[in-house]
Amino acid sequence: MNTKFAHGIRGLAVAGTMAFALTAPSIAAAQSEQFIPLLVYRTGSFAPLGIPWANGKLDYLKMINERDGGINGVKMVYEECETAYNTDRGVECYERLKTKGGGGSLFDTQSTGITYAVMDKAPLDKVPVMTMGYGRSDSADGSVFPWSFPLLGTYWTASDIIVQDIAKKMGGVDKLKGKKLALVYHDSPYGKEPITALQALARKHGFELMLLPVIAPGVEQKSTWLQIRQQRPEYVILWAAGIMTPTSIREAQATGFPREKIYGIWWAGSESDVRDLGATAKGYNAIAIQGSADYGKAHDDILKYVYDKNQGSADSRAEVGTVAHTRGMMIQMLTVEAIRTAQEKYGKGKAVTPEQVRWGLENLDISQARLDELGFGNLMRPVKTSCADHMGSSWARIITWNGDKYETTSDWYEADMSVIDPLVKAGADKYAKEKGITPRDCSKE
Amino acid sequence: MGFFIETLLGGLMTGVLYALIGLGFVLIFKASGVFNFAQGAMVLVAALAMARFSAWAIELTGSMLFGNVIAFFMSVAFMIALAIAIERLVLRHLVNQELTTLLMATLGITYVLDGLGQTVFGSSVYTIDVGMPKEPLFLFQDVFEGGILLNPDDLIAALVGAALVAALALLFQYTKVGRALRAVADDHQAAQSVGIPLGRIWVVVWSVAGVVALVAGIVWGSKLGVQFSLSTVALRALPVVILGGLTSVPGAILGGLIIGVGEKLSEVYLGSFVGGGIEVWFAYALALLVLLVRPEGLFGEKHIDRV
Questions:
Q1: Which is it for the CA torsion A315, A320, A322, A325, positive or negative?
Q2: Of A155, A275, A355, B100, most Cβ neighbours within 10 A?
Q3: Quick check: B227 and A10 CB within 8 A?
């Protein structure tokens, strides 16, 4: 099958006209083809993260087509749409692709801002939105958010796991009492999302939480780090993205704050964030989505079926196995498995509708044996979703930059749902009330 | 007290970095009366050029020093070529047009440079390593607990900024080109009528602004890494030129220092009362306050029209 796509390129503008992106037309949908819209950001401030992420997503789809001939014979067709991480352009991409090729199977918007913008549209358009590791944390409650799927963890579960690892390093949860932790965050919906969970954790464990917002894009942080130098928190939790991450680490060095005492969220934990810093970032920790810093059989398959045939999306095969590329692969693996699950119910070997993909997402049951079979055995833990639980799993590990590459430095952690579940319930109830939504009764489904 | 001095020093150092970018705005404005929206994009493109050329030159020569020197001159040549292209393709066609047209043209140049820069040089993060020392110094540890923090790379940047200002002041005040630049800024038509070649002057001024952007790009790029966000740093320099005056080189420096110190002190001492993150708008508020009293900025030329 002939599948074409073009990377969005920055538009050229004359006399004040706006920049724009071009994407090549995709293939007409056929009954034996499943259309996947791919929202990506290969340009703009966050491109260093967006490029390998997008490549990972593409490579996995290419590998499935090449190795397996698609899903039960249904080939994956796809089209990239460049958002440059801008919400307006993301919404434009969503509108353009939602009905294309028989309907966009699901949207992985790659942005909390775009997610918030399309979240209310998705139920009306009957298109599922998958937000692996980002988006709205309370959308894990499927009874209120039937079309949203924050699979594998949210910012709230990440917050809890980071605090668990800090507590472990300090010698136990009880050692947190009376201590000070600082949250240095991108002053945006993305950066503010963990505050609710961290405040709940601070109340539970008795630590003090310092909140230090950084204005986007985060190129000037001197006053933030001077305050850290003055207040001397035990650890800094860094909710950064793009250039904010290396700038934070550089300022930590400039103010003498040990990098070993910094924990970044997963979007601040890719090679592009620290590679150029090298030894300056040595000791810097980040939480990984599941085991995304490790290497598995799935990577070998990508190299064998895609790169060995000169079909790779990245400029270099060395990109395969990097954290951001692996995240892209994980997202597409979940997409493919959701489609496969939907086919089990609605007809093997047939393309499924976005509504049927939603069912597939809600009934995912990926066991360890299945993960092993897929080549993700050491990269992930089992995932099982339901009507009430749209997250399916909250397992994660901590990774640490050794000056040259990330190493996985913790065992598997699972979020303490006794803290997170009430927050999800409260948030979802509030949303339902605001929007006049009657929650589904999951006990009857 | 130690912390206050530290914050003050940090603000002063940041202020010099802002001033480096502000200077580019001032140069173009002085010579053409146009506020150059493309200055941030020029910083990005200059830094990208330096980063890519230096990677190549260091590998070729095996020496960081020689590699960087070669890359610097290559980048200067690149920025001059860019200035010529801008004059030929955009400005030449807009001689004697409304200033608003020129302003919009610089906005267009911004988008072109942002897009072309990423297309030609790529969107990854690149490094400029000119050997700036990164480890902090702690002074007066006997007097203040924990000492006074000083970053040597900021100090070097401040010295570079000061040298650049001195050079530009000399250029404007004591050279033939400087006088021509000022004449063009005053009135395009009058300057042309006495034989000043407008096109050449614009090439000169955009080249000088390009070199200033290169210096700013090297300093900021070695601090932050080189990537797209560098162009947004220019937004931080806007209040600097508003405050200092769009026509004054020393004004850009003083404006930078005031804004740098003002935003750091406000963030540290007032930020916690309003949830933090106030330094950006505080800088603009400060600039607006100055505009209320002195619309031409602290050092800007007073514009008097006879009626």
A1: positive
A2: A155
A3: no
CATH topology of domain A33-154+296-394+425-444: Rossmann fold (3.40.50)
What kind of architecture, by CATH, is found in domain A155-292+397-418?
A: 3-Layer(aba) Sandwich (3.40)
> Which chain B positions have a beta carbon within 8 Å of A247's beta carbon?
224
Mutation for testing the B interface, residue in A222, A230, A272 having most B CBs under 10 Å: A222
* List of chain A residues whose C-beta atoms are within 8 Å of the C-beta of residue B271: 223
Mean pLDDT, rounded, for B5-26: 86
Distance CA A440, CA A332 (A): 28
Residues 6+ apart with CB under 8 A from A117: A87, A90, A91
The domain locations on chain A are 33-154+296-394+425-444, 155-292+397-418
Q: What is the mean pLDDT of residues B283-290?
A: 86
- CA dist A44 and A112 (Å) reads 16
Q: How many angstroms separate the CA of residue A78 from the nearest CA in chain B? A: 23
Minimum mean pLDDT range among A179-193, A390-404, B95-109: B95-109
CA distances from B235 to A280, B38, B115, B232 (A): 28, 11, 18, 5
pLDDT 10s digits, A288-319: 999 999 999 999 999 999 999 999 999 999 99
pLDDT band for position B307 (50/70/90)? low
